[in-house]
Amino acid sequence: MKRTAINLLLIIVAFTIQNCVFPLIPFLSASPNLLLILTFSFGFMKGQRAGMFYGVLAGILLDLFYSGPFGFYTLFYVYVGYVNGICTKYYYEEYITLPLVLSVFNELAYNLYVYVFRFLIRGRLNVLYYLKELVIPETIFTVVTTLLIYRLLLYIGRWLTEFENRRDTTIV
Amino acid sequence: MESKHNRYILAGLTVVCIALIGITMVTDQWLEPLRTGVGYVLIPIQSGVNKVGVTIYEQLSDYGKLKGAVEENRRLQEEIDRLIEENNRLSSEQFELQRLRELYALDQQYMQYQKTAARVIANDSGDWFQVFRVNKGSADGIQVGNNVLAGGGLAGIVTDVGAHYATVRSIIDDSSRVSAMALQSGDTCMVGGDLTLYKEGRLSISDIKKDGDVKDGDRIVTSNISTTYLPGILIGYAADITVDSNQLTSSGYLVPVAEFNNLQEVLIITDLKEIQDPAGGEP
User: Fold this and answer.
1) How much is the pTM?
2) Which residues of B touch A78 (CB under 8 A)?
């Protein structure tokens, strides 16, 4: 229960930072996709169902922000949670390589999704330009940020476990 | 067993999302209560974070600017002297204009719109779309389709509204299309955002008739025939106009007046264009 509340809070904070803080930083030519990082991390750490749950939340926030067809982002984020949830069997705490690889794939898939459904269908064919100017910088930023966020999530998880254990012992 | 359940949930969610996408492509009126409800929670957070961010950013940049300020001050003083002189000249011409206008019984059609100022509280951080959110909404009289100005020029259009926020799509967004005309010749054209031009700070102009008289540096304003944009709002200046390969139309670039890099305050025109054509060509 407490974990869910904290994760919810994290998603809202990530959304706010992504929309209100990053655009203010002038030298940041691209910015990491925090919601994507959180969604796939939850999927990877906690399994498919949790991944889908947080995917829905992150997607709805984004869908409410943009005024395109509602459900566009939700659909993608649900799949991010689900697919990354498959890898949960390889999850153990200190294993950072797989999350980084996943982060690259998720970021590429996200950009491909946006490109195909919002740009390609309007006949924008300049793939190389988009790849060079948008996709690659954003992917790099996201991967670097994944390193930090993933550690943060592990730390929070460990702290919560410790907290719960201590409470149990005092009751007993 | 667990994974089978998950697959059902995934399938269910997929169907719901696709259905929602389908429905909201036709109409998203019914979403407004939901958007407003979530807005009540999110907007105070966004405004607060934005305020803190802006304060810190301004303090940092103020310090940096101080160094350049002395030099700038001297330059501006010269500018003021020049402008005072120019102003004297212009105000005498203004009287003449006034007189002539009355003579022609032309009322000042432009720039008499009701406006309200709003603060930008959230931007899209990803690079794919140029949309932003402001802190005024339907409670302040803002409606979907209102035009948004910044820095003396057209900046965008309101695409959805909650009680205390509105989402604005900039004219530099890749999907933005504005029906426009050249102020001098009255030739109509289309001003479109283009992601590949956005980093150079340009928009594209297309569909100028070949014999149309649009030259580099011409003022481009919103046209009378636009369904969603009020007429006569300055968008920017034409540049590099060339004849297309089909020999029927010309196209080129537009340098916008509004500065999009660091939008903080915008003006929203609360008047709607009266002829709302539901089948209008531009969204």
Assistant:
1) 0.76
2) 10, 13-14, 17
